[in-house]
């Protein structure tokens, strides 16, 4: 009666599609107040005056909070969250005021009437690799060394039989979850309750308690459902602090704050643009002799976020001479943050297109080139892989995609006026888990209840955690209930880093064992046991990753250069799949997001103003249904005895990794145009068309 | 969003009188553009006069052509069998626009009056002569991917976003308008304005004038096509678009009517290209020459130079397909 492996439907599905699921902003509360932030209209400067009277006199406005009137926060260490504490403006769109009113419309109108003047300073928002103020951060997200190196890359490049040296660029990207960043907050009896759209109720509580100087137990965070986050809701952003601040200013009155889509482009994090200088040296037979990746990216002046873009290049392929570096420019821009597969996603674009370029130079099939450089152990740490089935993914993908007999020549296939081609790229994502997550199992009314403060980011935790619990308890899944998304339940790690299921699931397995050890198979009503995850000692011995192979077909209109991708296919080796239905959705979602990155997404920052000018979903293009007609995900039945007791690897992020490179490689195969900066748009391929 | 009052008058004449008498009033139909503008602070009317249930939702035969009530939803117009068979370019243009839900709301009368999607126009924190005359044009020197290469001025380089309007310009449609002075008819190609030094005015309509119908003449001989080139497969504004009608006999072009979208402040009727085509052999060389004649006056901006070759290639592609 194993539940793991069954394609069970989402337990929360009906609630969501019927509109019965309550999201943060919709939390039913009596007589709420509504907030609307006021944003800076300069990129750098000091507020010289802020006029609030016109807003304050509006019927329905309760008050307008500015740096003059806002409460002093207990901790301003995190300057992103130190909102309304001083006159300084560090980026365009930063919050300079908050209007609180009886309706959201009045609040928004009031915000339009707040007018600030500034002493402007010259601002700098332009990333380039030529800047003289690039610096090396102490570490890159979350705690990787900034630079690594072995051997002598320069010498190896100079003596290489074939060398590829190219610069690749990825654009600035914004998470655009369907549900905006939203909070309902209530300050009552010296305690704060936040119904907040978050990927982690406990991490959110920890941050907010610190900012306001409250004991953690006086902050409760509730989040049963999340309408997507992709990392942007992994940590609280300023909107949560604002909601809490408004609630504290109006005790007993619930207040609601939802960022508008436009506001999210300045206040909810984003993926830094990257400039990737990639070098590959190889012998004629395709053995890599040198591999180097030097990355330049941006952070904000007020808070450092160093994306670990060069990290995947450290473990992907064998080469005796290696080097990776990260350099940052601190600019007058909003604070970058996590976005689905930070590091791995942009960091596999340069390397995987460079591998395609090298394969072309060598006249070697790109799959074969990857196979020839498959490392026996993690090339930099020397540790064996707990499991690594990249070659099997490539072979299985090739079989399913119809890769055999592929004519490698670029730009020679045409169907109905469209040039066609195919491309491949590898994907990888670390298999992580986190110590310190607790689950509780209780027997009550003939059923088992599992409590854990996990968040269902939309990925299926409501459904897969009961599957894990049912097997661990050896009972039918129908007899198991879970309770998630509330700090009233035991502490759980964030839904991030593709480690939710592995971490929470491990805690549940341990709690189930503890329960059975204590109460046997015939427990009494009210019996309960909990357990907390510890460190996995195998992490010291093994390199742990999930792998995948991405295949894409590209069609480029021979007249107009329009680029369409009629087919995407991914094969993944990602450990044990708990629920094939929700897993497939995650892979498809990741791949579609990768396609979107390849062809569409581009936050256009106008350096004169310092903000993203295409800040809505009409102008910031993401892939729509018509752009993704056929996306397929398959997986190998991989067993990994080392990653955790469940053999579970994360799947939330690996789907996006490598997709953009596969598409870029397919566009080259279709047209002969090698586009090295994303997104690949028709104007970039136009000059290469016949 | 500035508060506003809402009127739902009983008839069109009252609606027109109400708006004409109040400089701060605006007509409301499908609302797919205006409601966004209210939220963004771009439009700040004190009064909305709802004409959704007042203008005709009928498509009727008229002088061998069709008369389309201003209240006809875009999706209904695209699905009408007479439109599909006799004006296929119009149906194609409609279906290339927006998304299904938006087409259900958008109306024939309102669609040609939608305002530019210039990102600076849409953001009240940046200067824009169209929104605030005299404040400057932020698009010049900025993000120009969707901006004009034809007919722009130093005051405004915005493009008109409607697909429907491009097809109507090529089809020699006309617009029936009811104003405080009574009814008048405007050739569709004269409805929209080039920016000049008054880019705040999109059309020749006076305040209080309401589009009540769009009339299509008898369909011309030959074949028609609307081709929209955009960055994604659906739900995106045109980088360039071409509405073309081509009548070819024995390898020679008898008649051609062409309009461009995505390249000017108005749907751009390509009169000079048409002149080159008429009487010329229906070959790629002619088509390229036609594009060249029209685009000799193109003035692309840094960042949208690609539109000149793109439009040339698109026009040649469409005409080749029609010949």
TrEMBL record, chain A:
The keyword Lipid metabolism does not apply. It holds the Pfam family MoCoBD_2. Residues 18-122 form the Aldehyde oxidase/xanthine dehydrogenase a/b hammerhead domain. Its EC number is 1.17.1.4. It is an enzyme of class 1 (oxidoreductase). SMART domains: Ald_Xan_dh_C (SM01008). This is Xanthine dehydrogenase YagR molybdenum-binding subunit. GO terms for molecular function: xanthine dehydrogenase activity. Keywords: Molybdenum, Oxidoreductase. The keyword Transmembrane helix does not apply.
UniProtKB/TrEMBL annotation, chain B:
Residues 1-221 form the FAD-binding PCMH-type domain. Keywords: Oxidoreductase. One of its GO terms (molecular function) is xanthine dehydrogenase activity. InterPro entries: CO_DH_flav_C, CO_DH_flav_C_dom_sf, Diverse_Substr_Oxidored, FAD-bd_PCMH, FAD-bd_PCMH-like_sf, FAD-bd_PCMH_sub1, FAD-bd_PCMH_sub2, Mopterin_DH_FAD-bd. This is Xanthine dehydrogenase YagS FAD-binding subunit. Coiled coil: none annotated. The lineage of its organism: Bacteria, Bacillati, Actinomycetota, Actinomycetes, Pseudonocardiales. Pfam families: CO_deh_flav_C, FAD_binding_5. Signal peptide: none annotated. Its EC number is 1.17.1.4. The keyword Oxidoreductase applies.
């Amino acid at each position: 009666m194993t539940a793991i492996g069954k394609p069970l439907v989402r337990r929360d599905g009906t609630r969501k599609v019927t509109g019965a699921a309550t999201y943060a902003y919709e939390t039913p509360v009596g007589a709420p107040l509504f907030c609307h932030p006021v944003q800076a209209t300069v990129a750098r400067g000091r507020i010289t005056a802020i006029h609030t009277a016109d807003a304050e006199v509006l019927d329905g406005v309760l008050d307008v909070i500015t740096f003059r009137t806002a409460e002093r926060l207990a901790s301003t260490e995190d300057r992103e969250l130190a909102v309304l504490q001083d006159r300084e403006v560090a980026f365009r769109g930063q919050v300079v005021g908050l209007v609180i009113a009886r309706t959201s419309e009045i609040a928004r109108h009031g915000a339009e009437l707040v007018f600030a003047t500034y002493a402007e300073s010259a601002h700098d928002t332009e990333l380039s690799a030529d800047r003289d103020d690039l610096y090396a951060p102490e570490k890159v997200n979350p705690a990787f060394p900034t630079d690594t190196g072995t051997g002598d890359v320069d010498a190896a490049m100079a003596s290489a039989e074939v060398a590829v040296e190219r610069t690749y660029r990825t654009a600035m990207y914004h998470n655009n979850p369907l549900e905006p960043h939203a909070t309902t907050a209530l300050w009552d009896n010296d305690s704060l309750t936040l119904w907040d759209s978050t990927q982690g109720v406990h991490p959110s509580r920890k941050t907010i308690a610190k900012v306001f100087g409250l004991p953690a137990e006086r902050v409760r965070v509730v989040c049963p459902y999340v309408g997507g986050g992709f990392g942007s809701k992994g940590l609280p952003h300023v909107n949560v602090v604002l909601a809490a601040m408004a609630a504290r200013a109006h005790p007993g009155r619930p207040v609601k704050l939802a960022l508008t889509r436009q506001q999210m482009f300045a206040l909810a994090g984003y993926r830094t643009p990257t400039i990737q200088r990639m070098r590959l040296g190889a012998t004629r037979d395709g053995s890599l002799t040198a591999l180097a990746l030097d990355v330049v990216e941006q952070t904000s002046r007020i808070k450092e976020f160093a994306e670990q873009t060069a990290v995947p290049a450290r473990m992907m392929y064998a080469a005796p001479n290696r080097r990776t570096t990260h350099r940052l420019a601190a600019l007058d821009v909003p604070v970058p943050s996590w976005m689905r597969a930070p590091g791995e996603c942009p960091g596999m674009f340069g390397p995987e297109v460079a591998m395609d370029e090298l394969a072309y130079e060598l006249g070697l099939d790109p799959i074969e080139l990857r196979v020839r450089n498959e490392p026996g152990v993690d090339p930099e740490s020397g540790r064996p892989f707990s499991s690594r089935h990249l070659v099997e993914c490539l072979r299985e993908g090739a079989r399913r995609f119809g890769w055999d007999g592929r004519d490698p020549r670029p730009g020679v296939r045409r169907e109905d006026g469209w040039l066609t081609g195919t491309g491949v790229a590898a994907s990888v994502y670390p298999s992580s888990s986190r110590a310190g997550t607790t689950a509780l199992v209780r027997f009550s009314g003939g059923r088992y209840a599992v409590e854990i403060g996990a968040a269902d980011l939309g990925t299926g935790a409501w459904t897969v955690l009961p599957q894990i619990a049912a097997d661990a308890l050896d009972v039918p899944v129908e007899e198991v209930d879970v309770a998630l998304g509330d700090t009233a339940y035991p502490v759980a790690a964030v839904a991030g880093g593709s480690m939710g299921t592995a971490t929470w699931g491990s805690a549940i397995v341990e709690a189930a064992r503890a329960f059975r050890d204590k109460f046997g198979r015939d427990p009494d009503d009210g019996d309960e046991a909990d357990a907390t995850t510890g460190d996995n000692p195998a992490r010291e011995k093994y390199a742990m990753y999930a792998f995948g192979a991405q295949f894409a077909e590209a069609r480029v209109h021979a007249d107009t250069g329009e680029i369409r991708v009629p087919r995407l296919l991914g094969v993944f080796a990602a450990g044990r799949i708990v629920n094939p239905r929700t897993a497939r959705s995650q892979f498809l979602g990741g791949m579609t997001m990768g396609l979107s990155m390849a062809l569409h997404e581009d936050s256009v920052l106008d350096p004169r103003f310092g903000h993203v000018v295409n800040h809505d979903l009409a102008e910031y293009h993401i892939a729509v249904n018509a752009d993704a007609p056929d996306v397929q995900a398959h997986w190998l039945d991989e067993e990994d005895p080392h990653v955790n007791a469940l053999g579970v690897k994360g799947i939330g992020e690996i789907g996006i990794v490598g997709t953009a490179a596969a598409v870029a490689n397919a566009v080259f195969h279709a047209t002969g145009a090698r586009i090295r900066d994303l997104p690949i748009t028709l104007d970039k391929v136009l000059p290469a068309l016949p | 969003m500035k508060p506003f009052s809402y009127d739902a008058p009983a008839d069109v004449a009252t609606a027109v009188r109400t708006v004409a008498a109040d400089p701060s009033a605006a007509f409301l139909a499908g609302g797919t553009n205006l409601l966004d503008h209210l939220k963004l602070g771009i439009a700040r009317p004190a009064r909305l006069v709802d004409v959704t249930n007042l203008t005709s939702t009928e498509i009727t035969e008229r002088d061998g052509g069709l008369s389309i009530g201003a209240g006809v939803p875009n999706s209904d117009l695209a699905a009408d069998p007479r439109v599909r068979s006799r004006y296929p370019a119009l149906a194609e243009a409609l279906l290339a626009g927006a998304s299904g839900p938006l087409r259900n709301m958008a109306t024939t009368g309102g669609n040609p009056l939608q305002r530019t999607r210039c990102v600076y126009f849409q953001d009240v924190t940046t200067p824009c002569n169209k929104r605030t005359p005299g404040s400057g044009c932020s698009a010049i020197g900025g993000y120009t991917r969707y901006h004009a290469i034809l007919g722009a001025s130093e005051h405004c380089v915005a493009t008109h976003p409607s697909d429907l309007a491009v097809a109507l310009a090529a089809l020699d449609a006309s617009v029936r308008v009811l104003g405080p002075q009574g009814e008048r008819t405007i050739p569709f190609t004269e409805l929209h304005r080039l920016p000049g030094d008054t880019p705040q005015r999109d059309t020749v309509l006076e305040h209080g004038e309401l589009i009540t119908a769009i009339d299509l003449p008898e369909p011309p001989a030959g074949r028609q096509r609307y081709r929209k080139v955009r960055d994604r497969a659906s739900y995106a504004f045109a980088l360039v678009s071409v509405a073309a009608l081509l009548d070819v006999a024995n390898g020679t072009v008898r008649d051609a009517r062409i309009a461009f979208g995505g390249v000017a402040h108005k749907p751009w009727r390509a009169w000079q290209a048409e002149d080159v085509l008429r009487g010329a052999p229906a070959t790629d060389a002619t088509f390229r020459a036609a594009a060249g004649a029209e685009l000799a006056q193109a003035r692309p901006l840094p960042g949208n130079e690609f539109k000149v070759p793109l439009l040339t290639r698109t026009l040649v592609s469409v005409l080749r397909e029609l010949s």
